[in-house]
């Protein structure tokens, strides 16, 4: 994959992996458009490079997503690459329904699953107008093996994985479709997770290397272990093994 001379839309580009990708891709000579809910975070990222443009958008709102695509087209940005990176992660114990927050659950599912689907479909006609179009979905090993503390995150990422596979099949290489499986990265979203984390920069560089190699699936760090186990063991064994770790216990 060519990683220069593109116009790239990155969701959740104001912080975490999204910010890291925005800066790295801007440094490679791309025009980068970032979007997200927090204008302050977007502005901080935008200030770091004159190749970065920012649009505030609530990705859990379908109308806001449609308005975002309309605004990007109106502003004349020749977007040929979409990186669906934005995500929400909450912890739940389904044995304690009194603690379940339906509103937050709805935002989590809409952001992690519905938004990438809606945005991909809305942006697809624009992507196909330009050379080397691609859609890159940031998934999770938790979408392959569900994680006890974050079940809706796992469920939504499992849905994203299924969507990505079928999207790749349906587009038949007219648009390159790639899925990234990062490890647990040290970000604001993961601040309460009680497990080993890796730095943003290392994760970003691994993603870029995978893109340069034209991999359909980019597995990084602990994600490679999950893939290896799923290839060797019955899925129910892997699920039990992963969720037996002390860091996976839910109070």
UniProtKB/TrEMBL annotation:
Keywords: Oxidoreductase
Gene Ontology MF terms in the entry: oxidoreductase activity
InterPro entries in alphabetical order: NAD(P)-bd_dom_sf, Sc_DH/Rdtase_CS, SDR_fam
Pfam family, one: adh_short
GO CC entries: membrane
Family: Belongs to the short-chain dehydrogenases/reductases (SDR) family.
Protein's UniProt name: Short-subunit dehydrogenase involved in D-alanine esterification of teichoic acids
């Amino acid at each position: 994959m060519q990683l220069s001379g593109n116009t790239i839309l990155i969701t959740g580009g104001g912080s975490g992996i999204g910010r890291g990708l925005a800066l790295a891709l801007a440094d490679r000579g791309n025009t980068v458009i970032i979007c997200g809910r927090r204008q302050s975070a977007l502005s901080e990222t935008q200030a770091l490079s004159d190749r970065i443009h920012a649009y505030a958008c609530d990705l859990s709102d379908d109308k806001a997503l449609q308005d975002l695509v309309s605004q990007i087209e109106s502003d004349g940005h020749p977007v040929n690459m979409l990186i669906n990176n934005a995500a929400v992660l909450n912890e739940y114990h389904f044995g304690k329904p009194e603690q379940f927050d339906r509103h937050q659950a709805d935002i989590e599912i809409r952001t992690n699953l519905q938004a990438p689907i809606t945005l991909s479909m809305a942006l697809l006609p624009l992507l196909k107008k330009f050379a080397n179009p691609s859609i890159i979905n940031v998934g999770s090993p938790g979408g392959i093996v569900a994680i006890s503390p974050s079940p809706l995150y796992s469920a939504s990422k499992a849905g994203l994985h299924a969507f990505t596979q079928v999207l790749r099949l349906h587009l038949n290489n007219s648009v390159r479709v790639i899925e990234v499986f990062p490890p647990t990265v040290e970000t604001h979203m993961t601040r309460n997770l009680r497990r080993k984390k890796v730095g943003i920069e290392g994760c970003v560089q691994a993603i870029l290397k995978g893109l340069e190699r034209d991999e359909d699936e980019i597995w990084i760090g602990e994600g490679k272990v999950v893939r290896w186990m799923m290839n060797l063991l019955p899925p129910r064994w892997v699920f039990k093994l992963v969720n037996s770790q002390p860091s996976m216990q839910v109070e």
